[in-house]
Every structure is written in structure tokens, then in C-alpha cells.
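C-alpha cells please, single chain.
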Amino acid sequence: MPRINIQQTIDQGKLNKFFSLVYIICIFIVIFDGYDMNIFGPITPLLMEDLHLNAAQTGLLASYALYGMLVGSIVFGVFADKIGQKKAIMIGIVVYGLFTGLTGHANTPTMLGICRFIAGFGIGGVVPNVIAYVTEFTPKANRGTMTSWVSIGINFGAILAAGLSILFLQKFGWRFMFWIAYLPIIIVLLIHFFLPETMISYYRKGNKAKIQETLQRANADYIPSADDEFVLDHAEVSKVPLVSLFKDGFARNTILVWICYFMNLYMTFGINTWLPKLMMAKGYPLGNSLWLLLIFNTGTIIGTTFGAWAAPKYGYKKIIIAYYAVGAILICLLSIKFSFAMLGVILFIIGAIVLGINSMFNSYVSLCYPVTFRSTALGCGLGIGRLGGAAGPIIGGFLLVANVPMFFNFLAFAIPAVLGAIAIFATIDYTKTLTAKSAATDQDLKAAGH
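Here you go.
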């Protein structure tokens, strides 16, 4: 009776139509998630005027989606373990698509805040499960590249939000920009008909026929047999308590990593929310301000690509610290009145840096912890980061209400870059420490004559 290791069979497959279909559908899911996360910034000036909101109230409303994401990522994480990632993703899409669309019907700040929180709840459950799903259904040789580019889909969603705002916001109003989010619900049909359940779901149900069918699509070398016996490696789903992050010398890394996550998303969502309004305060019309937001988000393509090449070659800490330092200086420069073209260049570089850090940081964090609780570290860090993402719009709004000099509005987004650089400088690369210990042990054994 042949014993078939399910994950190894998928790992040994080659990139084909099946894997491409999984990737294309999942990248569209994440792009629309990115649209939802970032649409609040472009519509902020018109929203404030229509609902008679001040900047502090608007900042609070912008943060509600981030709080919803924090709760959603926890709830859907448990939910997915019970019903499968495919169903969890479908439910999350319906929730965020429906309630983002309903946000466009809100006539009061209270209704708008409730809709944004529930939409964020749905988003929080989609992105982590999509990344885990793509990780499972990608050949091992292509896994790093495919999962990285799925994550970057969030940034493409931000570009989409800015681009569609340029086309439609002034013509159709802020409500229409939320109604666009009804469209992703259609993707649920594509997921239902074209994507398989996760293999662990089929395995638990004892659905041998579906396992064989999916493995055939994933690996042309697999030939099903009536005698096949399937095994699934559960080593990667072992549950490690949160306390592991604070034991055996890892408390230092955990606190510093959480600081970085907080600062990273503070800058990302703070700038995305308030950039159009700040540019209008500097004398640029709304149309130009939306173009500047688009330029800012487009920078991620260069920042992420360069970081993915440079960080492994020269060291993640060095490259990320350099990003932080240059970003802090350029953000402060935004308070100076430049020509539109020069301002566009500066914002493109800032976008490359701020959004590029987000893409690199998860990879660096994986070096700071052993594999046994690396997922726990990443999940908790992203949760803390969402608190930072909620704080950015709030603090930016209060500063606008306080009518402080323009320099201080931008300084509020530059200081986190400095704090992030200090925090990552103090972290310890676990893999290097492990290598050093191994080398020391080898020397001791040699000295002892072994």
C-alpha cells in the first residue's frame, strides 16, 4: 500500500495552470483588501465636508477599521482551523465587501464607524488566511516569490484606491468609492467553483477522492491508486503558547519587534489617511493631492523590489535602518513648499521606503525567532502593528485640529521612523546567534580532542 505524503507531493510539483489559478484569484482578493484598507485617505476631504467632521473625529473613524482587523485576525484564525481556510476567506470577503459598500450609505458618524469596524473585521480574517493558503498550494521552489508578491497585493490595492479616486471621486463623490467595494463579493463565486479546500480539511474529512484530484492538479507526476494511503505532516501546526515569546532570552526581541511593527503601520496608515488633506493645507488642489497619494503608493514597487534584492545580500538590519533614516529626513522635508514635480519625487521615495519596510520586516522577524514559534511571533507582531495603524490617523487628526505648524504634522510621522531604526538596531538575529553557538561548540569539541 503506497504511502503518499500530501505536502511533499505538492512541494515537488512544478508551476502549472493549477498553481497559477490559485495565485491569480488570491492576488485579486488581496488587491481588493488593499483597496478597502486605503480608500479612507483619498475620500477624507469630501467626507469631512459632507458629514461636518473635524480632523480629530475623522482620525478616530479611520482607526475603527484597524481595530476591526485586530479582532478579525484573531477570530478568523481560530475559525479557519475549524471550518478550513477556503470557507474563512469566503466569509471574510462577504463581510468586508458588504460593510465597505454599506459605508457609502452612512449618514451619521456612528453608522460609518460601525460599518468600518465590521469591514475591518472581515479584512483581518482574509489576508492571513490567503497567505497561508498560497503557501500551501505553491511548489516549494516558487513559494518565497509567490507569497511575497501576494503580500504586495495590499500595496497594489492602495495604488488602485488612489487611481480610482483620481478618476471618480470628484465626479461621483465619496460614497461611490465605497460602493465599488461591493464588486469583490463576486470573487467568492470564483473561489467556490475553482479553488480546492485545504488539504488538511480533506484529510480530516477522510475525502480520499478530493485529495487525489487535487494532487493530480498540483503534480503531474502523481498517479492515483485505489490503494493510496495519505499522510500529512502536522509539525508546522504545533501550538506554542504566547509565553514562549518572553522566555529563554526572546523577551528583548519580542518587545523591540513589536515597537517596529507599531511604528511601521503607524507611518503607513497615518500618511495614507492624511496626505491628501495635508497637501491641500499646503495649497495643492484636491486633484493634485490625489495624484501625490498615488505616487506615494506606487513607490512600493521599487522599494520592495530593491529591498528583496539588497536585504539578503547586505543584511536586513542594515538596509531597514537605512530605509528608516532616509525616510525620517524626507518626511520632514515635506513641510517645505516644493514644485509639484519635486514633491512627487520625494513622495515616491518615501513610499518606496515606508511601504518597502513593511515588505522586508516580516522576513527579518523570521530570523529573530526559532521555527517552533516563528508564526506566533509574526502573528502577534502584526496584531500590535494594527494598533499602530489605528494610532497614526488619530494622532494626525488631533494635530490638524490643534492647528500646529505644518512641520510638526510631518514630524509626527518622522519620529516613528527614528524609533523604528533604534529598535531594530537593538534586535538580535537568532539564526546568527545559533550559528555562533554551533561554531563555539565545534571548537570546544576540537579542543577536547573529539
